[in-house]
Specification:
The complex is a heterodimer of chains A (313) and B (200).
Chain A: H1 8-14, H2 19-41, H3 61-66, H4 73-92, H5 96-116, H6 126-137, H7 146-151, H8 158-187, H9 196-207, H10 221-227, H11 230-246, H12 256-277, H13 295-305
Helix pairs in contact in A: 2-4, 2-8, 4-5, 5-6, 6-8, 8-11, 9-10
Chain B: H1 3-23, E1 44-49, H2 52-57, E2 59-63, E3 68-71, H3 73-76, H4 80-88, H5 97-101, H6 108-117, H7 126-137, E4 148-161, H8 162-167, E5 174-183, E6 186-193
The chains are: A mainly alpha (313), B alpha+beta (200).
Chain lengths: 313, 200
């Protein structure tokens, strides 16, 4: 380590978390990811494994390159099971790096299948892939896991645990910010002015399954109700605008309660998107474990569950 | 890795990710996160009003031998959300969101690299692809008398004026029933006046 005063960036990336915090984040991120992938790919289990092999109408770009044109319906359930298992191995720190590579490959495959049926490419795996790449290049396999304990590995330095978590936080926080920039760039303030595009979206989503005889939508009736109140829609849009603009400030917050408050706001945003527009991003807030040192919670949970053997290396 | 190597890695990592933002690349796993950034300045908002029961039955279809049947999502062995997109969007010529938004309001530089590296935007034949997919999935080749020669999808549309939207009055939109008839020769969209929507 240099004797000179560390730069802003050194303090920002290297001087924020303890080494073991990386392993604790991996543990909870891994288990959260197992649930997340089930929410994303469960729909592929609604098709018959022995049924016809659907010819994709618009294969995703890498399926096109690889010449994958048909769905193999018998492969989806085993692939999802393997994916969930790989998430478990990753979480517990057993064959961690191999598990990350398996997760990435299986996620690319299942996402490709899901999105190639009709060609709508969803963005729900984009941040996950970036975070997994950061775990892959980090020393997350050497701390707070089964392999680390069995091999009796020495603890990693704090800076080695800090920078991957900080890089993940930068990516997550700025994902919202860039979403705002992209929306403003294309649609300007029309996005939420007088209800604007949000009202259009609420109407389109709530009417796409039709109306019942009572005049209420078959699904997403809350969205239909809200679409009839453009002023409320405007204020919700203004709230989202403020949230996406200011969310990167969380990168400079150390106090866990303030961070929790901001992240609960983000969670409310995702849950609202789900209940109003059926955006399948409701379990995405599990990625917020990367903003915290999860060790105190882990210790509390162990005591509550009366588990004796510590997982920490 | 040393701290210097970490800094170099992070520089490259974020350079790649944020180049996608500035260059407006939208090929998974890189994205400029467009999400719902779509500009619609039409004075009338046109919204598809689905019919869950009709959609569950599927496309009304005709085989080459004249037999009538319904091509449902179960027959095609596909997830419900994707079948909805085929039935209510592709059948009427509407593509996935990325086909429209990717090309909207590109800056000259972005247009230049896009057209230089990826070529001109190709015209997608959604309905022709749909017919091809149905026949391929069901195992019918070009000479098969069981092949599907016509697919039919029916959908109601509601038209909301900007004035009504501004006041939140969604009670009496104009409506239209459209029927997409997809054949190997092309697609016709039949239009007729629709039934009024039940009042909210």
């Amino acid at each position: 380590m240099s004797q000179s005063k560390p730069s802003f960036w050194d303090r920002f990336f290297f001087d924020w978390h303890a080494g073991e915090a990386l392993g604790a984040a991996r543990l909870y991120f891994g288990f959260g990811l197992a649930i997340y992938v089930i929410t994303q790919y469960m729909q592929l289990l609604l098709i018959s494994p022995a049924g016809p092999h659907f010819l994709f109408t618009l294969p995703i770009w890498y399926f096109e390159l690889l010449g994958i044109e048909h769905n193999l319906p018998w492969l989806n359930a085993p692939a999802l099971l393997l994916l969930v298992l790989a998430c478990g191995f990753f979480a517990l720190g057993r064959h961690t790096k191999t598990a990350i590579i398996a997760i990435l490959v299986l996620m690319f495959y299942l996402k490709g299948v899901r999105d190639s049926f009709s060609g709508d490419v969803h963005h729900r795996e984009v941040p996950i892939v970036a975070i997994l790449v950061l775990f892959l290049v980090s020393k997350c396999d050497q701390v707070f896991g089964i392999d680390a304990r069995r091999k009796g590995l020495a603890p990693i330095a704090d800076w080695e645990g800090s920078w991957p978590l900080r890089a993940m936080q930068v990516y997550i926080a700025l994902f919202y910010f860039w979403a705002l920039v992209a929306k403003l760039r294309v649609s300007g303030l029309y996005w939420f002015e007088n209800g604007g595009h949000i009202q259009d979206m609420l109407l389109a989503r709530s009417l796409r399954d039709g109306l019942g005889p009572d005049g209420a939508p078959v699904n997403l009736s809350l969205a239909y109700d809200l679409a009839q109140h453009p002023i409320r829609t405007f204020w919700i849009g203004a709230g989202v605008f403020a949230f996406e603009l200011l969310f990167p400030l969380i990168l400079f917050v150390r106090h866990w309660k303030l961070k929790l408050f901001m992240l609960l706001g983000a969670t409310a945003f995702h849950l609202s998107n789900y209940f109003l527009m059926n955006v399948q991003f409701f379990f995405y807030p599990f990625v917020f474990v990367t903003f915290f040192d999860m060790r105190p919670l882990h210790g509390w949970l162990r005591r509550a569950l009366r588990l004796s053997q510590p997982l920490a290396a | 890795m040393t701290q210097t190597q970490v800094k170099r890695f992070l520089l490259g990592f974020f350079l790649v990710l944020y180049s996608a933002v500035f260059l407006r690349v939208d090929f998974f796993p890189l994205s400029w996160v467009p999400m719902y950034g779509v500009r619609n300045t039409a004075p009338i908002l046109t919204v598809a009003v689905g019919d869950l029961e009709r959609r569950k039955r599927g496309f009304a279809a005709t085989r080459a031998n004249g037999e009538q049947l319904f091509v449902s999502r179960k027959l095609l062995n596909m997830p419900p959300a994707n079948f909805r997109r085929l039935y209510q969007e592709r059948a009427f010529g509407e593509g996935p969101p990325q086909h429209g938004r990717e090309r909207l309001a590109l800056m000259p530089f972005n247009r230049w690299w896009h057209e230089t590296l990826l070529g001109q935007e190709q015209e997608h034949q959604y309905q022709a692809q749909l017919l091809k997919t149905v026949n391929d999935t069901l195992g019918h080749d070009a000479d098969d008398p069981l092949r599907i020669v016509q697919l039919e999808s029916q959908l109601n549309y509601a038209f909301f004026t900007r004035e009504h939207l501004a006041t939140g009055d969604l009670s009496h939109p104009a409506t239209e029933r459209r029927t997409a008839i997809i054949t190997p020769e092309g697609t016709r969209i039949l239009r007729e006046p629709g039934q009024p929507l039940p009042a909210p």
